[in-house]
Fold:
Amino acid sequence: MQAAQRLTKRVIDAAEPNQDKAYCIWDSDVKGFRLRIRPSGRKTFELKYRAGRRQRLLVIGDYGPFTAEKARKAAEDAKHNASGGGDPQHEKVVHRNASTVAELIQLYLTEGRIDKPNKRESSWECDKRDLLLHVHPILGATPINALTTPDIQRWQRDVAAFKTAKVRKLGFRKLSCTRGGPKVVGRATRTLSAMLNWAIKRELIKDNPAARVSKPADVMRERFLTDEEAVHLFTTLDDMETLAEIRPDHADLFRIIALTGSRLAEMRDLAWSEVDFSRPAVVLAPERHKTGQGGRRKVINLNAATVEILKRRANKTDWVFPKPAPYHGPMETPRHAWRAVLKRTKFENLRIHDLRHTFASLLIKDGHSLAFVQKALGHSRPEVTARYAHLKDEATRAAFDHVGAIYTGAKQAEPQTEDATAPSANAA
Structure:
C-alpha cells in the first residue's frame, strides 16, 4: 500500500495503471479521500466515510470532469454532511432516482420529514393527501426538470374541474371521497410549490415553476352557532346520552371543544398528564398543537363547566378519551357520532371545527378584542384571527346604535328595567 500523499495534478498524471488489478492512492489532507486507478486507466475520486455505524463509499467522479481541488472540496463537503447525521451516498442515489414528479413526491414525503423536523405530522398528512390525490394523478409522469408553469396552470384548471375527484372503497361499508374542485386548488398549489422549493434546496431542480402561478386563497367557511343553537346543541347532547344514542365520551368531547374553543386533535388526543387542575388549564407541548413550531407550549384555560366534565371522566388510562378496551391510545375521530348529532339538531353545514369558530364569535360578541381572541385561540399570527373582524364590527355597530337610541329616544320603546321606572329628574 502506497503512503498517503496530497493528490495533485502532477501525482494523478504520474499514476500508472496496474494491469492485474485496481489500486488506490490516499490523500494526506482529507481523511478517507482517495483516487482509484483501474487497469483500464480510468481514474476515479472516492471518499470513504461513516454514516452512523456503517462505513460508506461515495463515488465523487472521474478525473477529468473533476480536478483534484474540485474533488477535494466535494469530499470535504460530504464529510461535513456525514458529521451532521447525513449520508451523502444515499442522498446521491435518491437524487438520481427522483426523475419524475411521482418519484419526487415519494422522496419529499420521506426525506422532507428529516429536513423539516418541526413540521407537525398532521401537516404532513395534509401534504400527503394533496400530493397523492391531486398532484400525482395528473402530473406524476412529468419529468421534474421538464415541468413548466403552463403545465401547472393546466393542472390547476383540471383540479378545479373535478378531474381528480373520485370515490374509493376502503372496506366494508367504508368509502373515501376525493372531492377536488375550486376549493382545493389554492391549498394543493401551495403544497406543490413547497415541495418544489424543497427540491431546489436539494439541488434536484433549479427553478420552481409553481412560484409564477396564482394561488387562490382558501375558501373560508364561516358557520357560527347562535346563542339559541348553542343551547340546543347541549340540550340535544344530554338527551342523546340519556337515550343511549351517543356514547358519553363522544358527547363529552363535543362539549369540551365547544367550551374551550380547542382544535379537535388537541382534545381528542388529550392525555391526563397534560391536564393541570390546580391552574386549571391544559398545557400542550409544542409538538401537540398547530402553532408549536417555535417551541412554544400552548395553555388552554379551563372554565368551571369543563373542569366538571374532566373530573367526571377520571379513569385509569393515560388518556382523557381512550379507545375502548382492550385497545390502547386516544379515541378515533367520532365522525358517525357527529353526523347523528347533526341529524338530531337539524343543523346544516356544521363541522366539529365550527365549534371553535363559535367560541371565538361568542367572545367577540361579549366585547373582547381581537387580540384577546388571538391569545384565547392560540393563533400565532394576527391575520388568522382577523377573519373574525367583521364580528367585531357588528358588535361595535350595535354599541353605536345603542348610544344613538338613547339620544333619539328610541330607548324608551324597549322594556325598561326596575330602576328605569323611577321618574326622570327632568320630568314635568
The chain has three domains: 9-85, 98-212, 227-402.
